[in-house]
């Protein structure tokens, strides 16, 4: 391996910059050139490629977002697009590439690998929805950002003696909702993996809790369930309690990464380069049971993940 590429793909996540910095510095330390591919696979197909040196990743470890920019690229899901991507890598002398992103990005990474470009994936998504790993870059920052926002909503909700539905991100996964639900002391935690749709039961519990003198009622609703605004209207109509919905949205993807996100992202970035140096390809860096490990990409994509029964049970007993 003489030159490696690095790109970020899919939704950005705080800590991606720490991973980029680590990829660049680890490669340079080992005498390898690094090329930054801008805007994910879209930028690869447009040949938006620039050489990175150690200095070009100074002052980025504490910054949210990704200095390489990111995109979701339809064309790269086609065989034609993937073939062109591999050819562009070869044209630019890129013989190994680190792809920082989520499941969708790893599908593309697997294809690049099959086309002869040594490829290593690094899990970067606030959703924590990658089955082979207990950690994804950005999740920690995202839950801390959401937690602080929910604390603030709780203040005003209590003052007005309202019910508040706060919708958090996570796509089809409920991890952000679960963690914030517990950390914010919510009254309801609605996860797509678990919610049975019984809104009447929620309404009954709200009325009960008001009778017991509770001044607020915080419902953390995961994006995968959604419909927070209409839920708020129905709850207000059924309970007579003023109810507001807040969709936290993209604020959860921004901001300076936490220490944990900077640290884990740095280790994972370095590990990705070391795998390339060892001649490996088609691997995904992961964090499992307290260790940094790696998996075959296809094997990793076949794995299934679910919210821990034990953690969900405990979360449910804490809300009442
Ligand atoms: O995957 C990260 C994520 O923020 C999800 O939580 C959310 O469903 C999605 O991306 C939003 O995507 P976009 O930024 O394209 O609206």
Please characterize this protein's 3D structure:
This is ATP-dependent 6-phosphofructokinase. It is a single chain. With 320 residues, the chain is α/β, with parallel strands linked by helices. Helices cover 42% and strands 18% of the residues. The termini are far apart. The model has no long low-confidence stretch (mean pLDDT 97). The structure holds 6-O-phosphono-beta-D-fructofuranose. 6-O-phosphono-beta-D-fructofuranose (F6P) binds at residues 11, 102, 125-127, 169-171, 223, 253.
* N to C succession of SSEs: EHEHEHEHEHEHEHEHEHEEHH
Mean model confidence by pLDDT: 97
- What's the shape? elongated
How many beta-strand segments?
11
Count of helical regions: 11
Q: Tell me the strand percentage band.
A: 15-25%
- Helix percent reads 40-55%
Radius of gyration: 22 Å
**Class inferred from helices and paired strands:** alpha/beta
Described by strand count, sense and barrel closure, the largest sheet is: 7 strands, mixed
N-end to C-end Cα span: 57 Å
Helix-strand blueprint:
Blueprint: E1 3-8, H1 16-29, E2 33-37, H2 40-45, E3 49-52, H3 79-91, E4 96-101, H4 103-114, E5 118-123, H5 139-159, E6 163-168, H6 175-183, E7 188-190, H7 199-211, E8 217-222, H8 228-239, E9 243-247, H9 259-277, E10 283-288, E11 291-296, H10 297-302, H11 309-319
Parallel strand pairs: 1-2, 1-4, 4-5, 5-10, 6-8, 6-9, 7-8
Antiparallel strand pairs: 2-3, 10-11
Bound molecules: 6-O-phosphono-beta-D-fructofuranose.
Pathway: Carbohydrate degradation; glycolysis; D-glyceraldehyde 3-phosphate and glycerone phosphate from D-glucose: step 3/4
EC number: 2.7.1.11
Organism: Oribacterium sinus F0268
């Amino acid at each position: 391996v003489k030159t490696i590429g690095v790109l970020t793909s899919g939704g950005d996540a705080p800590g991606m910059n720490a991973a980029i910095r680590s990829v660049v510095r680890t490669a340079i330390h080992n005498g390898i050139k690094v090329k930054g591919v801008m805007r994910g696979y879209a930028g690869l197909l447009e040949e938006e490629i620039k050489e990175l040196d150690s200095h070009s990743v100074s002052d980025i470890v504490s910054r949210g977002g990704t200095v390489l920019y990111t995109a979701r690229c339809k064309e790269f899901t086609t065989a034609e697009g993937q073939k062109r991507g591999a050819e562009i890598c070869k044209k630019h002398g890129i013989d190994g590439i680190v792809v920082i992103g989520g499941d969708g990005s790893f599908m593309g990474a697997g294809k690049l690998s099959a086309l002869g470009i040594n490829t290593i994936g690094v899990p970067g998504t606030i959703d924590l929805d990658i089955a082979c790993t207990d950690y994804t870059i950005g999740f920690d920052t995202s839950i801390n950002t959401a937690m602080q926002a929910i604390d603030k909503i709780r203040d005003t909700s209590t003052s007005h003696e309202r019910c508040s539905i706060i919708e958090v991100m996570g796509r089809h996964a409920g991890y952000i909702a679960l963690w914030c639900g517990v950390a914010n002391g919510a009254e309801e935690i609605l996860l797509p993996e678990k919610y049975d749709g019984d809104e009447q039961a929620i309404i009954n519990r709200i009325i009960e809790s008001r009778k017991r003198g509770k001044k607020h009622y915080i419902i953390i609703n995961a994006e995968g369930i959604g419909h927070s605004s209409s839920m708020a209207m129905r709850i207000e109509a059924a309970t007579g309690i003023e109810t507001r919905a807040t969709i936290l949205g993209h604020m959860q993807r921004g901001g300076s990464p936490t220490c944990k996100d900077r640290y884990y992202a740095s280790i994972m970035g370095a590990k990705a380069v070391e795998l390339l140096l060892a001649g490996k390809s088609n691997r995904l860096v992961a964090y499992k049971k307290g260790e940094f490990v790696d998996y075959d990409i296809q094997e990793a994509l076949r794995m299934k993940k679910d919210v821990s029964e034990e953690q969900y049970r405990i979360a449910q007993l804490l809300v009442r």
